[in-house]
Amino acid sequence: MTNTIGDIEAADVVLITGSNTTENHPVLSSFVKRAVRFGNTELIVVDPRRIKMATFAGKWLRPNLGTDVAWINGLMHVIVKEELYDQQFVENRTREFDAFKKSLEEYTPDYVEAVTGIAAEEIVETAKIYAKAKAAGILYCMGITQHTTGTDNVKSLANLAMLCGNLGIEGGGVNPLRGQNNVQGACDMGGLPNVYSGYQKVDDPAVAKKMGEAWNVSDLPQKPGLTVTEMVPLAHDGKMKALYIIGENPLVSDPDLNHTEKSFSNLDFLVVQDIFLTETAKLADVVLPSSCFAEKEGTFSNTERRVQRVRKAVEPPGQARSDWEIICDISGRMGYKMSYQNAREIMEEISMVTPSYGGITYDRIENVGIHWPCPSKDHPGTPILHTQEFTHGKGVFHAITYIPPAEMTDEEYPLFLTTGRVIYHYHTGTMTRKTEGLNERAPGCFVEISSVDAEKFELENDRMIRIVSRRGEISARVLISEKAVEGSVFIPFHFAEAAANRLTNAALDPVSKIPEYKVCAVKLAKEAVS
Questions:
Q1: How far apart (Å, rounded) are the C-alpha atoms in residues 111 and 141?
Q2: Is residue 488 packed enough to be buried (19+ CB in 10 Å), middle (13-18) or exposed (0-12)?
Q3: Domains assigned to the chain
Q4: Residue 426 clears pLDDT 90, i.e. is over it
Q5: d(C-alpha 312, C-alpha 294), whole Å
Q6: What digits encode the pLDDT tens for the residues 90-110?
Q7: 436-458: burial string, b at 16+ Cβ within 10 Å, e else
Q8: Is 138 left (phi over 0), alpha (psi -120 to 50) or beta?
Q9: Which backbone phi and psi does 13 adopt, to 5 degrees?
């Protein structure tokens, strides 16, 4: 997030898109609801489903799945045409505006309505609400990123924020809501194939030299590695022979699971390090039991970039150990000794080699966390990014063209499927589905469908049906819901026995390599899978 969670209540307008905030981020959603109910914040929700957050919104726009670039460009077309944008911010803090402005010309309200299904007058009204706010914040989640155009979607939201001067100010910002605890910290620590900690590029010789000196090694590779979505096809083709998986359950979470299962069966060696015996761990040659968050020391970096202490509350069971201890032991046996006495020593090294964490120490975050970047011991941290300038100077406007989803509906597969979460379960259910009370509230998979489509396909509530895509099929219970909109169905992906990702499309965003989980074509069949 460029801004803080608390900043939400300082916004005049909050735009939420691609985020079922009340179910995926229930604590954070309370800030939004409080701002709307007790403050003067106006809420705009753009979502293909009538999610609960839409009931708090002054504006709910329902776009066709996979048309985010079109409706965002439509808002900006209106804002530019009516000169509602922040001309001073654009002139002083951005570049490439003329080319960007030209690219918006075709996105008239009428054209956007034809593409997105959002009424032209709604586009105009929403654009004016956002543009006229003194401070407008954008919240988004994986409903924006999990598309073949996910990178374009994010760039488009950044364009919108820059256009109206909503970066570097309280109550503004472009704020991605992280999908899992400490996923921000994992990225910060180099859990991506092209960077070291603090997003220092692997292919930068100066960075490689610095890291090599810190670790007392030479000739560190300067070629970026592979993403998980690039590794699995290589395993399928027999070009990748071994995988070491830590805290991930791809045999439920990966798209096109039938292909993923075949890929994993071609591996010569699979290691899984996790806190439970997941569906993926059950196939592993070696399982390394690790300790959970309450059983170890360390830090988490949350969605607002706040680095916070995690303290050991209980001893880990059996032979479970901290992830860092397991990794260090393996490294030592492979010829490179990693000698740390505790998690504090690792944090000291992080501060030494990571400029954005340079001033963060255990002592400083003993009671209250610090927002990175915090480059020195006397730096207070940075709650709001880009207050004076962007990292690379002036912000760049990107001319983005709308591209349809990789898979569209047709006569054989007449409905769009989108996937997501429910409030009672978390990701692949590794932890939550071991909790009796949560299983009571959400015992199994369902397919959420509109009353119009239920009548059209002659489906009854609670009936078990088959949902079929070009890649696979599952059985699920029908749930006729007001959240659903005609032409689309929704399935949560938590349930391994009816894994939604047997249906989803593995087509990737060319830049981020994220799969298109949020759009694919399906058909419904009354008879359940035998």
A1: 26
A2: buried
A3: 6-177 (3.40.228.10), 183-225+290-371 (3.40.50.740), 415-525 (2.40.40.20)
A4: no
A5: 5
A6: 999 999 999 999 999 999 999
A7: eebeeebeebbbbbbeebbeebe
A8: beta
A9: -135, 140
Query: Using CA atoms, how far apart are residues 19 and 49, in angstroms rounded to an integer?
Result: 10
Predicted pLDDT of residue 120: 98
What CA–CA distance (Å, rounded) separates 485 from 415? 11
What's the mean pLDDT in 444-467? Answer: 95
Give me the mean pLDDT over the 72-96 stretch: 97
Q: Which two structure tokens, joined as six digits, stand for 26? A: 């229930």
Measured distance CA(199)–CA(196) in Å, rounded:
6
pLDDT of 180 above 50: yes
Q: For residue 281, how many C-alpha atoms fall within 13 Å in the half-sphere facing its CB?
A: 16
Instruction: Give me the pLDDT at residue 528, please.
Output: 54
- CA 24 from centre of chain: 11
Residue type, 472: G
Closest to 147 in 3D by CA, of 465, 407, 365, 437: 407
Q: At CB < 8 A and 24+ separation, what contacts does 105-108 make?
A: 105/77, 107/70, 107/73, 107/74, 107/76, 107/77, 107/402, 108/74, 108/77
pTM of the complete model beyond 0.90: yes
The mean predicted confidence, pLDDT, of the chain is 95
Mean pLDDT of 54-77: 97
Query: What SS3 class is residue 140?
Result: strand
pLDDT at site 526: 82
Q: What is the dihedral of CA 110, 116, 122, 123, to 10 degrees?
A: -70
Total length of the chain: 530
Residue 530 has a pLDDT of: 45
Residue in the structure block whose two tokens are 């088959």: 466
